[in-house]
Amino acid sequence: MAGLVEVAIGHEADRLEQLYNEGVPFQAAPTRAQGVNPKGASGYRHQTYYLPVALHARLKAAWWATKDKPEGAPALAGLVEVAFEREASHLEQLYNEGVPFQAAPTRAQGVNPKGASGYRHQTYDLPVALHARLKAAWWATKDKPEGAPALAGLVEVAFEREASHLEQLYNEGVPFPPAPAKARGISRAAAQRQGEWLRGEWERRRQAQTPPDATDD
């Protein structure tokens, strides 16, 4: 497979050199050049929360063991999306007649147990809108019986509910064995978003390179 990728890259480099550089290799690109990240162009972003390591591991184990089940998710971030969706909906139904809350202040996070043992920052690639929705639900309900004083605390609640849900469904209520350390899964939604972005980008470039039709006066 890697050999085929090498051949494809070689052909594409040759094609661009013939088109735009008289068949000669281009000068080296800047070291860190990457171009536009399609993830950032599609409404997703890395979101970081300060969470118990053991809870992250528990949710990851539940994801790994159920990723091919009807209630599972193909990627860990996908299961986090499910957990956030459930928790936001739960609070909206309880306290806002099922309607999303107004947006929370931009930098509001609440008090986190920084420095506490067993906690670590965990990052997931999530929809910006879903993060904002959960944050709005947290902000509006942080003083309610079902709320949480910090955004990270509400994320803990969401993870706890989702892990318990999958354990009850597929493991008799017992936590699953640990998942492989580096396992994250393949996000079908992310792959679809990237494909849509690439198709749009190629179409934009084709239109930019196509000269306008000549018209006779």
Quick structural summary:
50% of the residues lie in helices and 8% in strands.
Roughly what fraction of the amino acids lie in strands?
A: 5-15%
- SSE succession: HEHHEHHH
| Helical stretch tally | 6
Query: Rough shape?
Result: elongated
Task: Report the end-to-end length measured between terminal Cα atoms.
Answer: 55 Å
Our Rg estimate from Cα atoms comes to 23 Å
Portion in helices: 40-55%
Return residue spans where pLDDT drops below 50 for at least 5 consecutive residues. 36-41
Tell me what you see in this structure.
Helix content is 50%, strand content 8%. The relative contact order is 0.17. It has a two-stranded antiparallel ribbon with strand order 1-2. It has helices at 2-20, 53-66, 76-95, 128-141, 151-170, 188-209; strands at residues 44-52, 119-127. The protein is mainly α.
